[in-house]
Amino acid sequence: MSTMAPSGAFSLAGRVGIVTGLANENSIAYGCARALSALGAECLVTYASPKAERFVRPLAEAMGGPEYQLCDVQDPDSVAALFRRAEEHWGRLDFVIHSIAFAPLEDLHGRLTDSSAAGFAQAMDVSCHSFIRMARLAEPLMRDGGSLLGMTYHGADQAVANYGLMGPVKAALESSTRYLATELGPEGIRVNAISPGPIRTRAASGLKDFEALATDGETRSPLRRLASVDDIGNTAAWLISDAGSAVTGGIHYVDAGHHIQF
Q1: Which position among 30, 163, 179, 253 bears the catalytic label?
Q2: N or C: which terminus of the chain has fewer CB atoms within 10 Å of its end residue's CB?
Q3: Active site annotation includes 47
Q4: Which CA distances in Å does 31 have to 12, 51, 97?
Q5: Whole-angstrom Cα distance, residue 236 to residue 32?
Q6: Catalytic pick from 30, 47, 68, 153?
Q7: pLDDT greater than 70 at residue 237
Q8: Which run of H or of E encompasses 189?
Q9: Model's pTM, two decimal places?
Q10: Confidence of residue 117 (pLDDT cuts 50, 70, 90)
Q11: Spatial CB neighbours of 5, under 8 Å, sequence gap ≥ 6
Q12: Edge-to-edge strands of the sheet including 251-254?
């Protein structure tokens, strides 16, 4: 008997959901929204600040013309408004993609040993706990099950030079993924994290000596390249689709194999 999935298992026709974290054409959120739209999904796409609007507006057509919404994840009213809009628009949710991370530069560029309590707390709030808050708001809208996706990095498992306090923060995100998957699984809600390697996004540019990390990925990963935002989007589409219906609680590396290298 063939074990190949039928092509329809990858269709996202009729699926609706939220993609957060759009900043520009290099954003992981852009690759995700574009891939989901190409497979038939309808997205509500968020950006974090008014000054980002001029960069994101021109991207709408390539993402299938999604509705945009400004969302500051540190503002409870802003996040509540996002999910309220999704309920008004569709009455349900099938997926949420959390592609948001932040740490104050003075803490990100220094040693973890020297990180401030306030900076660490802010990084944890924006990069990890906001995913948990979104899961809580999504749960009642995923009456027929759904998929929650976060973005991590293998600096959660390995001490990566210059990744600093984001390593413990991403480790917390990965652990949260497993706990959320356990708690929400009985409702048919799957929770996974995608772990890209170095990608030249605006967020990554804040890392000290990021180019050295990217060059290492290009020259030492088994595939001798970096993953693209489209690679991440395609993986997100698979996890959201029926083809990924038995997959939950996992950390899925999409980094050209970079994480296996020492």
Answers
A1: 163
A2: N
A3: no
A4: 15, 21, 11
A5: 6
A6: 153
A7: yes
A8: strand 189-196
A9: 0.92
A10: very high
A11: 242, 243
A12: 67-70, 42-47, 16-19, 95-98, 146-151, 189-196, 251-254
